[in-house]
Design a protein that fits this description.
The chain is α+β, with helices and mostly antiparallel strands and 374 residues long. It is built from 8 helices and 16 strands.
């Protein structure tokens, strides 16, 4: 009875850390507004970032942060009426939530340009720009990183006046068609000193998506198809990450997913440690994510085991040292993720079946993180 209770508890509890670390990008503007009055504002649009997935459901698109789970973001019309700014968009973006058995909430973003004044002053304080901070859990991927930029000396006013908006809104990294908009792009750091904004400048910034939960390759097929239909993910991502293609049979999908698991193992490094002795299919005590199990062996020892029956190690050891791993950095990273040059994204797979049990962001040349010990 205790074993069943533990298993039920682990299956139904826990959420990704995306909400905890939240979406923080405080954009401060000030000077004089369009009415000639002293003006200062802090846009809190970053609260419409994505929330973390849990063991039961997908993350919420507009989650707020953990201290403000019901964010009150000003209407665009209110911002424009009270401040010297004209908004180009406020939108959610596809492929921005962390992939997983349960997907993280989508990231959002906004863009605006000074309007009715000759100058504004601006500064930015944010995080999650050079490292994912909305981590996934138990094989789920991190959500999209924050991005902020200013397009200086654009022709947005002329294009707006002619009824043409150079918007793409399909790619979270560059929602505006920068080539079509013209001007010079300045990518902002996470902590940006004060800088001036003048008419023709466009401020564009997007926020973190929520972290995913569990291996994306075990996500319900119908859920993936629904994501495609609603525009939450692209058809390319559905195929390459989830192994799902519209109008294919379940058998075709499962065959593609098996190919993707084998491709993971083909590119992964072999385990640092040889699998410890233990009996397969031990008595289940608890589950962690899609398929990492805590079991009791025939000799009453506790061990970490994969759903496929592969035994990693005794429970007091670091199971990740017995897993196949793949380090991702630079151009190999998914387009929505950025990792500082001192860090790396590491995926951990079962060396037998290829299921993804964990994803870490860690310092290079440092020991494998040990985050689960019984």
């Amino acid at each position: 009875a205790i074993s069943k209770l533990l298993a039920l508890t682990e299956k139904t509890r826990g959420s990704s850390q995306a909400v905890t670390h939240g979406t923080m990008a405080a954009l401060f503007t000030g000077d004089t507004n369009q009415h000639g009055e002293p003006f200062g504002n802090q846009l809190i649009d970053a609260q419409i970032g994505g929330g973390g997935a849990s063991a039961l459901i997908d993350g919420i698109d507009q989650s707020g942060c953990f201290v403000s789970p019901r964010p009150h973001v000003a209407n665009i019309e209110s911002n424009e009426a009270n401040g010297p700014m004209l908004f180009l968009y406020r939108s959610f973006f596809p492929d921005s939530g962390g992939d997983g058995e349960h997907r993280g909430g989508r990231a959002a973003g906004t863009a605006w340009t000074p309007h009715g004044v000759d100058r504004l002053r601006c500064s930015l304080t944010s995080h999650g720009v050079e490292v994912p901070i909305s981590y996934g859990q138990f094989g789920g991927m991190p959500g999209a990183c924050s991005t902020a930029m200013i397009v200086h000396d654009s022709d947005v006013k002329e294009r707006w006046g002619s009824g043409e908006l150079p918007l793409v809104l399909e790619d979270i990294s560059t929602p505006i068609d920068l080539e079509k908009l013209g001007g010079e792009v300045q990518v902002l750091a996470a902590k940006q000193d004060e800088l001036p904004l003048v008419p023709g400048d466009v401020v564009q910034y997007t926020f973190q998506g929520g972290g995913g939960y569990g291996d994306p390759l075990v996500r319900n097929i119908d859920s993936v198809l629904k994501d495609i239909a609603l525009g939450h993910i692209s058809t390319t991502r559905a195929k390459e990450v989830y192994g799902v293609v519209i109008d294919e049979s379940v058998e075709q999908t499962e065959a593609r997913r098996q190919q993707l698991r084998q491709a993971r193992l083909a590119k992964a490094q072999k385990p640092e440690q040889t699998s410890a002795s233990g009996s397969k299919n031990g008595s289940l005590l608890s589950r962690f994510g899609s398929g990492l199990l805590l079991t009791q062996s025939d000799n009453n020892g506790l061990q970490f085991e994969c759903d496929c029956g592969h035994v990693f190690c005794n429970a007091e050891l670091n199971w990740k040292e017995y897993a196949a791993l793949n380090c991702i950095e630079g151009k190999a990273l998914p387009p929505q993720l950025k990792v500082h040059e001192t860090l790396e994204l590491v995926e951990y797979f079962c060396p037998s079946c290829g299921i993804q049990h964990a994803v870490d962001v860690k310092e290079k040349d440092q020991p494998i993180l040990h985050d689960l010990k019984i």
